[in-house]
Write a structure and sequence with these properties.
The structure holds two protein chains of two kinds.
Chain A (H helix, E strand, L loop, with lengths): L34 H27 L2 E2 L8 E2 L3 H7 L2 H33 L6 H13 L2 H11 L5 H8 L16 H26 L3 H9 L4 H12 L1 H17 L2 H6 L11 H11 L3 H30 L1
Antiparallel strand pairs in A: 1-2
Chain B lengths: L6 H28 L6 H11 L2 H32 L5 H9 L10 H11 L6 H24 L3 H9 L4 H12 L1 H17 L2 H6 L11 H8 L4 H21 L1 H13 L1
Helix pairs in contact in B: 2-12, 3-6, 3-9, 6-9, 6-13, 7-8, 9-13
The chains are: A mainly alpha, B mainly alpha.
Chain lengths: 317, 263
């Protein structure tokens, strides 16, 4: 959901500097060495127990030829990874995630930013209503959203009905069942659901910009476009970086919407890495291969995160 | 646009905002409108409530949500207190290790979760959903809460300590009351994640009587086939608790969420 990228150390008032009495080991006075660890223990057990043990186990299973049912599998080393590299479905799925990721991230950012700018000034009447409309989709269950859009985007659904009303009487596409449209339709559903998140973050960032910057620009005769380009965009760079990162991770994570609208089909035309991982283990009983795909997914997520944090930090210096 | 908008700017901004919001509004309207079609509002919703397991599934989702909220609340508050207000060796390392959970796609854990749940015989047990769900929610709530607690002045805690409060006493009597706004965010966020979760219940709660609200649409597509109005009525009911929770805590929620992401 969020990132450490933009996490600056919380501002502390001057009086909160470490008191002279603090011992050299950095502990707060009166605190036993074990105390902080006791507080961290429950969270650490959960996170380590589920996430780290999970990743470790996945790594181990990924070196096995195993159906996940028999008592144990046969050790095959990196065979699963070699098979993955040669698997056209994996590459297809990665291509879909890439197209989906770029489309959704860019469009959500642009729409969210425009809306945040429009509602950031006091020019628009009824702003609270616009805000609720933009943000409401974010909190809805993806499972419910997917089911709703399966109806809306059906050949006889409300979307084609709208097109008919607008005079496009030939509109009868099955938007989610036609391999030419399915991936873009899923991207559209995602954009509908998540633009409110971009909007919210941009809105918060814009509200923190020093208003005198805008006033000075207005006095200098800068038009709206120039103000946005030279004052607003540089000021919301951190938010843009956050959204780019959460967007990439989100694209890699996307499962519910795809699984419940197209299930990866028709054919493989909307197969995502996540739906492929799921099918491999649950439907095909290829636990070892599915684990290898999971590790690839995880490495992609971590690499993308590292690259973006770097890029953002370098850009800042 | 910026500064003091004149009449013409106002009109253009209003039209632009409306044009932009319309594609977001129309599907919401379509969902509610469709749920009123066919046999009409009363009969559609009555049929969904009486002839389907939606009430049972809402109860299941509520149990899971309560479990996740409790677990997330306890783990987050305890650890955020230590990370935000105590100094110790290895603090940064452990904190970052937990934050790795932020970028982890849950689906990447499908193989181990499936096998562990199988081995422990936890199929059709709420714990199989509650525990992994809490583990994936905690990294985010910890980040939010740590930042919030770190901003509480040290003098406040110091005063409590001098008055004889233990560190746990300080947490319960001083920190938790001060942390009410972030607690609201944490609770809504955990509720949102638990109520909306689709993947884990799909995998581990396959018994008909244990279905959650998010797997209900699957039930409908099987049983009701093309009775769209009833499916949409069910969707409205599924989303209602979340919408109510969001609208009633909107201010806290938006502030907390954006503070956590851009701080």
């Amino acid at each position: 959901m969020t990132t450490t990228v933009i996490n600056k150390p919380p501002v502390q008032s001057a009086s909160v500097k470490p008191p002279a009495s603090r011992r050299s080991n950095g502990r707060t006075p009166g605190q036993r060495a074990i105390t902080p660890w006791l507080y961290i223990l429950p969270a650490a057990i959960l996170v380590v127990g589920v996430i780290y043990v999970g990743i470790g186990y996945t790594g181990w299973v990924s070196t096995l030829n195993w159906n996940g049912i028999d008592a144990s599998g046969r050790q095959v080393g990196f065979d699963n990874y070699i098979a993955a590299a040669e698997d056209p479905v994996l590459w297809q799925a990665l291509g879909h995630v890439l197209v989906f990721g770029i489309l959704t991230i860019v469009i959500q950012m642009v729409l969210g930013l425009i809306m945040a700018i429009l509602l950031g000034s006091n020019a628009v009447f009824g702003r609270p209503i616009y805000k609720v409309v933009m943000f409401l989709p974010v909190v809805l269950a993806p499972a419910a959203v997917a089911t709703a859009f399966r109806g809306i985007l059906a050949p006889d659904g409300q979307f084609n009905g709208l097109l008919h009303a607008l005079g496009i009487s030939s509109a009868n596409s099955a938007w989610l069942a036609d391999p030419h449209f399915a991936l873009y339709s899923i991207a559209a559903i995602n954009i509908w659901q998540w633009t409110g998140f971009s909007f919210l973050l941009y809105q918060a960032a814009i509200s923190q910009i020093d208003q005198t910057l805008f006033e000075a620009a207005a006095i200098d005769g800068a038009g709206t476009f120039k103000v946005v380009r030279y004052i607003l965009l540089p000021q919301v760079r951190g938010t843009t970086a956050t959204l780019a990162l959460t967007g990439c991770i989100g694209a890699l994570k996307t499962f519910d919407i795809v699984y419940l609208t197209t299930g990866g089909g028709p054919g493989r035309s909307t197969e995502f890495l996540t739906t492929y991982v799921y099918k491999q283990v649950i439907e095909q009983y290829h636990a070892g291969y599915s684990a290898a795909l999971s590790i690839i997914l995880l490495i992609l997520a971590l690499t993308l995160t590292a690259i973006q944090i770097r890029a953002y930090r370098f850009g800042e210096d | 646009m910026f500064g003091r908008p004149n009449k013409r700017t106002r009109l253009i901004a209003q039209i632009a905002a409306t044009a932009l919001a319309l594609p977001f509004l129309l599907p919401l309207v379509a969902i509610v409108a469709e749920s009123l079609q066919g046999e009409g509002f009363i009969k559609n919703y009555q049929a969904v409530l009486t002839k389907t397991p939606i009430l049972q599934s809402a109860l299941n989702s509520a149990i899971i949500s309560a479990g996740v909220i409790a677990l997330v609340y306890v783990c987050t508050m305890l650890s955020a207190y230590a990370f935000g207000k105590m100094n110790f060796a290895g603090k940064k390392l452990v904190f970052n290790a937990i934050l790795v959970g932020l970028v982890l796609p849950t689906i990447a854990l499908v193989v181990p979760l499936f096998l562990i749940v199988q081995k422990l015989g936890l199929f059709n047990n709420y714990l199989a959903v509650i525990v992994p769900l809490a583990a994936t929610v905690i990294p985010f709530t910890l980040l939010l809460t740590r930042n919030y607690l770190a901003a509480i002045p040290d003098e406040v805690l110091e005063a409590a300590r001098i008055d004889g409060c233990s560190s746990f006493g300080t947490l319960v009597r001083i920190v938790l009351p001060l942390a009410k706004p972030i607690t609201a965010v944490l609770v809504v966020w955990a509720f949102l994640q638990a109520w909306n979760e689709f993947f884990l219940p799909l995998l581990f709660l396959q018994d008909q009587s244990l279905q959650t609200v998010t797997t209900i649409p699957l039930y409908f597509t099987g049983t009701y086939g093309s009775d769209q109005p009833k499916i949409f009525a069910a969707l409205v009911l599924i989303c209602l608790p979340i919408v109510i929770a969001y609208l009633s805590l909107q201010k806290f929620f938006e502030k907390g969420l954006s503070a956590g992401a851009i701080k």
